[in-house]
Design brief:
Blueprint (H helix, E strand, L loop, with lengths): L2 H10 L3 E4 L2 E3 L7 H10 L4 E2 L1 H7 L10 E5 L11 E5 L7 E4 L2 E4 L1 H10 L6 H13 L5 H9 L7 H13 L4 H11 L8 E8 L2 E9 L4 E6 L1 H4 L2 H15 L4 E6 H6 L1 H18 L7
Parallel strand pairs: 4-5, 10-11
Antiparallel strand pairs: 1-2, 3-4, 6-7, 8-9, 9-10
Length: 283
Amino acid sequence: MSPTTVRSWVASGRLLRLGGGCYALPGSTTDWRIRVAAAVRSREAVVSHATALALWGLVPPPAGPVHVTVAPGRSGRGAPGVVLHRVADADWHVRPVGGLPVTSVERSVVDAWADPSGAGRPAVRAAAITAVRRRLCTARQLTDELARRPRLPGRAALTELVRLLADGCQSELEIWGCLQVLRAPGMPAFVQQRPITVAGERFLLDAACEDVLLAVEMDGAAWHGSREQRERDIRRDALVATVGWQTLRFSYRRLTVEAAACRTEILTVHTARRRLFGLDVVR
């Protein structure tokens, strides 16, 4: 299309100028991805922050402006609907997503945490948990990224979250259960996400007390609410019992409403199994 035709179409409303030599048909300008692509290509930028998390599928497309990052010496400036960040090492963290240059998951999480106006910290927190569970990044990669950002706003809270992810927590329920139940004073030591193979099948135990072969499973409604899932859980519990493991299951409601009762039950069973295994001498 010649420059003359482009100018004619823009003048007649058949094309809309998005800036930086980018144009779009009128009906496509409300498409979020079109806006992101235009912001990147018109500035030689990288998609970052909450916008990057959305492209990674970790948060819904934010209603606010598009966030992109460029090198400090690169020309360009923000515009209505676009927030421009300048960072020296952005090129080190670029990954292709849907044909666009996007900051890595770990970088996107930390960037978005530092600028909660994009998605909000609760959404970024959920994104970090989901990213590690889906293996889009590791807790170690998040730790390394945090180490490069000693002055990150809210750094302590994100560091604590990443530490829990590194310990094996894979959901908010497991984090709650870990802090309020498993690690409460007087509780036995547990290993999280303990692998076990029985009859050729491999499972991960949410938490395992290995000295007495006691497993604790924390059942979130999203993962264990269906009849089929309950049947799978029952079968799994029976299967691991064939090699000596006893499983205690706690629902979301019990863990969050009756944490003290859950702790008491775990301690009671743990004590009984220590006696069964001959680890305590009863006089």
